[in-house]
Amino acid sequence: MNRAVEFSRVSKSYSIYASPGDRLKELATFNQRSFHRDYWALRDISFEVNRGETFCIVGENGCGKSTLLQICAGILQPTSGTANVQGRVAALLELGSGFNPEFSGKDNVYLNGAILGLSAKDMDHRFAEIEAFAEIGDFIHQPVKTYSSGMTVRLAFAVAIHLDPEILLVDEALSVGDVYFRQRCMRKVHELRSRGVTILFVSHSTGDVKAIGDRAMWLNHGRIEAIGKTDIVVSKYLAAMAQKDASYQEHEIPEAGEYRGPDEIVTEIPNIDHRFGDGRAEILGIAAYSEAGKQLSELSPSTTVVVRISVRAKKNLDRPIVGFMFRNNLGVDFAGTNTAREGYVLPPLPEGEVCTVDFYIEMPELYASTFSFSPAVADGTLEHYVMCDWIDNALALQMSKAAAPIYGQFHFPCRIEINSRIGAGAASL
After folding, report:
1. Which tens digits make up the pLDDT trace of 103-139?
2. What whole-number distance in Å separates Cα of residue 163 and Cα of residue 70?
C-alpha cells in the first residue's frame, strides 16, 4: 500500500543548558567539551501512515507529539533515523506558525500559497473561499500582530484546508477557537477525510480522536506506548491517566471510593479539553459517586449516580446556574441538565463563596462505551445567561456492560401488552 508518512527509528534530542554562559563555553571549546545535557523528545519511533488514512496521536503534554508533527512538516530534522513524507503538506501547528506578524492576513495567505508552490493566480481563485471560511471581516487586511489568538487560528485553519493538501497536520490548534468555529473545523476535517486526504491529528480530546481516527498512537515520554485501533489505544491511554490520577489522589485527597460527606467540596478536574467563559466564576472540581457516597471509577446502567460539581464565585453572581453536559464517545451531546432546568433556584453567590451542587441522575441502560461530563457555571436564566466557566469533557467514565443487549444507543423502559391474537380463520373475514 502507498505510504504517505514513514518513520524508521526516529529519535530527536535537544541540548539543555543550565545558563546562556554554558552555551558560550561549549562554543569556545569548539564542542570539544560538553556543558549541556541531552533531552530526548523522541526515542526510536517507527510507524507508517497509509495514504488517505486518519492517524491520531495522543499523550500527555511533553510526550513528543508536537515534535513528531514538526518533523513531518520539515520544520525539524531528526537526530537519528529517517522520516519520509510523500505529498503536499499543510500544517496547522503552533498558533500562527508560518505567519509574518507584520504582514496583513491577505499577504500571509498568498505567502503560504507561494511556499507550497501555488501561483498568485491559483491563490486568486482560492482567496474568496479562505476569507469566507475564516470570518474575520476587515481584519484580513490588517497586520496579523493585531489579531486575537482566535482570529489567528481561524485564518491559519482556513489557509491550511483550502490549499489542496495531500497531507494535513493538526496539532491542538482547534482548542483555541470558540465552540462554533471548532465545530465547523471538525466538519471540514471529516470532509477532507472523506476525500482521501491523509490526516495526522494531535488532540487531548479523546472524543474527537475516536470520531475521526482510523488508527491511533499513544506516546509516553517520547516512546511509543501503544499503536493500533483507535478505540483500543484510547482506552489504554485513558486507563493509564485514571490510574495516575488515582495515585495522585492517594497523596492529596481521600482515596477513590472513600466516603464523601454531603457538604464536601470537590477540587479535582481530571481532564480539560477546552475551557471558556467570562471568568466571573470557576469550576473547582467534578466527581461522580454512588448514593452511598462511594466515588465511582465506572458507570453502571440502571443505577443512581450523584454528579457533584463545586464552583467558586470570583465576582458576585446574582442568578448562578450550575449544570453539566453528558457526551458519548464520539463527542456528541447525549444529554444535559442544570439547576435552572430542574427548577432549583440557587441563591446569589457572593465573590469568593463556594457552592457545591449534587445532581442525582437515574442512569439509563446505555451501550458499553466511554462517556464524559462537561461541567458549567453561568449567571442568568435559562433563556438569557452569560457563561462564566465551561470545561469540555472534565470527567470521563466507562459504562459497564448491561445485563441484556443494547440495540442502538440506549434501551428505553418498555412495557409490552398483547391485546389480541388473530387466528387464520379470523384473518379471512
Report:
1. 998 998 888 888 777 888 888 888 998 898 888 888 9
2. 19
